[in-house]
Amino acid sequence: MAVGASGGLAASLAKGALSICLICAIPAAAHDILRSESNLQAGGRTVRARFILNLFELKDPVVPGNPRATVTQLDQSIGKIFDSVQRHYILRTPDAPVRTTLGQYTLVDGNVVHMEVLYFFERDIASLEVTSTLYEIMPPGHRLLAAVTLNGTLHQAILDAGTTHARFTGTSGTPWQTAWRFGCLGVEHIFTGYDHLAFLMGLLVATTTLGSLVKVITSFTVAHSITLALATFGAVTLPSRLTESLIAVSIGYIAAENLLDFRVMPRYCITFFFGLIHGFGFSNVLRDMQLPRAGLALSLFSFNAGVEIGQIAIVLLIFPLMRDLIASGWRLKPAVSACIGCLAVYWFVQRAFA
Questions:
Q1: What phi and psi values does residue 167 have, to the nearest 5 degrees?
Q2: What's the CA gap between 132 and 177, in Å, rounded?
Q3: Model confidence over 161-214: pLDDT tens digits?
Q4: Which residues share a beta bridge with 90?
Q5: What does the alpha-carbon distance between residue 347 and residue 245 come to, in Å, rounded to a whole number?
Q6: Which has more confidence, 243 or 173?
Q7: Angle formed by the axes of helices 194-204 and 240-260, to 10°?
Q8: Residue 172 Cα to chain centre, angstroms
Q9: Exposure on the CB side of residue 334, measured as CA atoms within 13 A
Q10: Which residues contact 191 (CB under 8 A, 6 or more apart)?
Q11: Which pTM does this prediction carry?
Q12: 350 membership: H or E segment, kind and range
């Protein structure tokens, strides 16, 4: 009898541990894609480049061991950052610039630097070649999101370790090329958006029927699509720190509902409300690129479509697996909910107070 009880307890613990692994595989780094942004304005013989770099991601940090930098510390380190950008971000027309100078720079939230660099060439710029090896001084998986305005024409590119070079002329890429690039970016964002994945996991583990699944996913999709569009076009925006903190709160709330087995309102209603918050998080990718209005609608639609494709793929993969595991006796709901609740607390503290 005692042996049987011990065996049952051991089996339950093993199942709980395995179920926790499903969600603990989520890195604590949250949904921030490892990326930098550059916005290039080319005219005459000059290129004005505006960079957005996350100081946390530099292999040679500005403030070692300190989660936040000060303006004074940035002033002391900006020359080194500028030198790194010059070595790892190269512009040609195809001639090399005759002079490169550092313009204005500012510090945002203690870890993001907005930096302006001016490139001067001997002749008028008819085409522009960009080579980026910024991934060499950033963590693995880093990407550069580039927006280039050349002779009034908008170009967009995503450069990483696999694609380091892009060439731009007076004509833009086809709409299909733009749609493909931003669609892929949307898929990547949802697959590497670990807090969004944790939110979805919290929803899926407590969803029991196909009908309720459709309601929950539809409400989330509609809600984040609304705020993604509003924020991208600048109609409504929230501070990034507030948005990221509220996303963590949404994950914690879903975890609490699951663990305490209560509902203030139908799950699809609360999902809609929190989906509005997550939409502001999704919008950060496009807003940080500072894309000109021309072509922004296509980029927005393609990015959102990529997010939905990624989300549907995750639901189709995870929901049946969870239902099968629960049907076979696995107690996934409390284990997964406890894990995402712990992650929510960690993310909230990291984002609200770091």
A1: -125, 135
A2: 20
A3: 888 999 888 655 677 877 888 898 888 888 888 899 999 999 999 998 889 999
A4: 131
A5: 7
A6: 243
A7: 20
A8: 26
A9: 10
A10: 197, 310, 314
A11: 0.67
A12: helix 332-353
**How far apart, in whole angstroms, are the C-alpha atoms of residue 166 and residue 67?**
34
Q: Which residue has the tokens 């490139």?
A: 119
For the segment 95-113, the average pLDDT, to the nearest whole number, is: 90
Q: Specify the 3-state DSSP secondary structure of 158.
A: strand
Question: Percent of the chain scored above 70 by pLDDT?
Answer: 84
* Sequence letter at residue 203: L
Q: Which amino acid is at 15?
A: K
Average pLDDT over residues 64-84: 81
Residue 19 CA to residue 333 CA, distance in Å, equals 9
Q: Map tokens 């479509």 to a residue.
A: 305
Give the residue with greater pLDDT, 287 vs 190: 190
Please choose, from the candidates 142, 98, 141, the residue with its C-alpha nearest in 3D space to the C-alpha of residue 123.
98
Quote the pLDDT of residue 35: 74
What pLDDT score was predicted for residue 98? Answer: 95
How far is the C-alpha of 266 from the C-alpha of 289, rounded, in Å?
37
> Which string of DSSP letters, residue by residue, matches 222-247?
HHHHHHHHHHHTTSS---HHHHHHHH
- What confidence score (pLDDT) does residue 354 get? 65
Mean pLDDT of 147-156: 78
Element (H, E) at 120: strand 112-120
Q: Which of 314, 315, 317, 228 is nearest to 277 (CA)?
A: 228
> Quick check: 53 and 77 in contact, CB under 8 A?
no
Distance CA 80, CA 91 (A): 19
CA distances (Å), origin 273, targets 224, 253, 269, 270: 9, 12, 6, 5
Residues sharing a CB contact under 8 Å with residue 1, sequence separation 6 or more, in sequence order: none
